[in-house]
Every structure is written in C-alpha cells, then in structure tokens.
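name: query_chain
kind: protein
chains: 1
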Amino acid sequence: MPTIRIFIIDDEAYVRIATIAYLAGFEDLLVVGEASDGSSAVATFREHSPTIILLDISMPKLNGFETAQRILALDSKAKIIMLSSLSRKICLEASLEVGALDFVEKANYEALVPAIRKISLAA
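structure:
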C-alpha cells in the first residue's frame, strides 16, 4: 500500500499534536506538514505535496472554508477532509459545497483513518 501524505491545518496546537501522534501508529500514513492558520497553509501546502489535507473549519483570520477554496483554486485536485468539533450533520453539506471530499468530527479517530484511506483513492 502506498504512503498517504497528510497535511494538517488546525489553529489548536494540541489537536495537531494529538492527530500526528495518532496517525504515526499507521505504516501507510505520513504527516508531511502542518499549519496553524489558513494563510500559511495556502502559502506552503504545495511544498508538502500532500495526498490528503485535514482542514479545521473554525480558525481565525481565514476559516477552513475560505482556506479550502484558496487551496482548490491553486490545485483543483487537492483532496480535503474538513474537521470540526461541530457535528457531521451540521458541517458535511457546507464542506462539500466548498469542494472538500468529506467531513470528520475532530478527535473521532475511528472515523478519520478510514476517511483518509477512502479519500486518498478518490479520482
């Protein structure tokens, strides 16, 4: 199985640290970069060549929806999974409308890894 390269964008350092630590337990998943805000994520995401972008919705300055739109304007094939502490029911439709391919509730690691693997295979 090829390595899935992951770029994590979240303004909360503890969320990034916990997610990186969790994903390190999977041989096929590799976190290649992280950003604490949308602006720096947009500026640096190409440097990381991610397979998947994990993107928090609620961030100051540039929220996740705006960040997704800017990343997709630079690379229309970018594969984005939106994250939030809000429920899937509330966020899934809005996430799909901006071009993300899925939504997972933050810290729902049981759902996150299958979503990463599924979306990484999407055309």
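note: Residues 109-120 form the longest helix (12 residues).
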